[in-house]
Amino acid sequence: MFRPLELYIGLRYTRAKRRNHFISFISSISMGGIALAVMLLITVLSVMNGFQSELRDRILGMAAHVEVQSANGDLQDWQQLRKNVDDHTKQVVASAPYITGQGMVRSGRAISGVMLRGVDPKLEANVSDVASNMDAGSFDSLKGGTYNMLLGKDLANRLGVWRGDDIDVLIPKATVTPAGIVPRFRRFHVSGIFSVGMYEYDSGMALMSMKDAQTLYHMGSGVSGVRLRLDDMFKAPQVSQELSQWLPYRYRVTDWTQQNANFFHAVATEKTMMFIILSLIIAVAVFNIVSMLVMVVTDKQGDIAILRTLGMKPRSVMAIFMIQGMLIGVIGTAIGVVLGILLSVNMVHIVPFVEKVLHTNLFSADVYYISQLKGELHWSDVYRISGLALGLAFLSTLYPAWRAARVQPAEALRYE
User: Fold this and answer.
1) Distances in Å between the alpha carbon of 92 and those of 68, 95, 100, 126, 257?
2) CB-CB contact of 170 with 106 (8 Å)
3) In terms of Cα–Cα distance, which of 372, 396, 321 is closest to 2?
4) Burial of 393 (0-12, 13-18, 19+ CB in 10 A)
5) Residue 144: its pLDDT value, please?
6) Burial 131-169, CB ≥16 within 10 A → b, else e
7) Which letter does DSSP use for residue 124 in this model?
8) Separation in Å, CA 408 to CA 300, 394, 400, 405, 416
9) Nearest C-alpha neighbor of 214 from the set 75, 114, 112
């Protein structure tokens, strides 16, 4: 549709110094609006991609890809189950037993509710990231019979304890004594402090040896379940379904997508809504293109009439003004893409700089799940945003170009 003549005239109209400076001003505003909208969309979606990825990695640093539990909560044959699952499913790269339960920890007058987890240090290091995130002490200090315990960093600060201190652990199970029924508790030695970078775990998780947990909960040789780590976390639903069909009915299999389904769905929904809302900025800039082209058509009615008199067809006139409008859209989109990519790639450096200038902490760890903001650029988002901007810019040229094609030469030249 765009032949050399239409392209030449359209580009000439765009480059020419207009007599009406107000039209030039609106053209610049339209181009800047599109660039700003595209930049914001790319940056926001990149930040949300980074947030989602970082959150998923930190959650899976403590949670398993897949968990196999007994229907009654007491898994006695976990050694054979672990061996059978490892042999049956090739995607499993590591597995470890665990014991979990609610409890309270106390130091002096400070007391806090926690999630207690009994683990085997040698096996647990293969399915979680705690061993690589120790601030003090050693993960291998969790040996049976020593009653050592690892605390999250924020939990330790709340209790006012550090490595080498003692704390009391109470669980919601009773012990019958001659004096009556009393809560079951045990004194543990804090042998280490970990920090996985997620406030929910750093402030509410305590780890102990699996043998000590079995003694505390009177579970004998049983465990709560077996945690599995896969070679590809995104195959967890497939592996979970396969194991559910293969294992007997007395076993219950869950994966990380089920355990955190509502949270990740909320993040995905928020990302979609942000895309829709920020897309309206592009629509506002596009309305400016419509206004600018309508004024250009009115200003160039004499030129249009002369071109029509020389034999130019209406569709060629349309092409001239569509090229002019699309050029604004293309330049604005290109500028926005470049700026958006630069912001997304350097987000990890920009946020600390802003915090330093403003002397504030924008993402406090006790308020937000993630205290560090980073951008994760997905080229699919860049293509989608660029296509949306160019598509709206193209649509914005149709009505003004159609009006230009309907200009009657005789009427336009009557007062020239």
Assistant:
1) 13, 7, 22, 11, 17
2) yes
3) 321
4) buried
5) 86
6) bebbebbebebbebeebbbbbbbbbbebbebbbebebeb
7) H
8) 13, 25, 15, 8, 13
9) 75
- Residue 228, strand partner residues: 66, 95
How many other CB atoms are there within 10 angstroms of residue 19's CB atom? Answer: 8
The identity of residue 61, as a single letter, is G
Q: Is residue 68 pLDDT above 60, yes or no?
A: yes
pLDDT in tens, 292-305: 778 777 777 777 67
DSSP string, 319-349: HHHHHHHHHHHHHHHHHHHHHHHHHHHTHHH
The Cα 265–Cα 331 span in angstroms is: 36
Ranges of each domain in the chain: 4-58+263-413, 65-258
**Residues 172-182 as b or e (16 or more Cβ within 10 Å = b):** eeeeeeeeeee
Minimal CA–CA distance to 330: which of 294, 292, 289? 289
Written as one letter, the residue type at 312 is M
- CB-based contacts of 192, cutoff 8 Å, min separation 6: 134, 136, 137, 138, 139, 141, 148, 150, 151, 163
Beta-ladder partners of 193? 136, 151
SS3 299: helix
Name residue, tokens 């790639």.
Answer: 345
Tens digit of each residue's pLDDT (9 = 90 or more) over 337-346: 999 999 888 8
Element (DSSP H or E) covering residue 13: helix 4-15
Angle (nearest 5°) at CA 414 between 410 and 416: 120
Reported as half-sphere exposure (CB side, CA atoms, 13 A), residue 41 has a value of 32
The SS3 call for residue 139 is helix
Q: Contact at 8 Å (CB) between 93 and 236? A: no
What value does the CA radius of gyration of the chain take, rounded to a whole number of Å?
32
Q: Report CA torsion sign: 387, 388, 389, 392.
A: positive
Rounded to whole angstroms, the Cα distance separating 387 from 392 reads 9
pLDDT-derived band at 163 (thresholds 50, 70, 90) equals very high
Residue with tokens 């990740």: 264
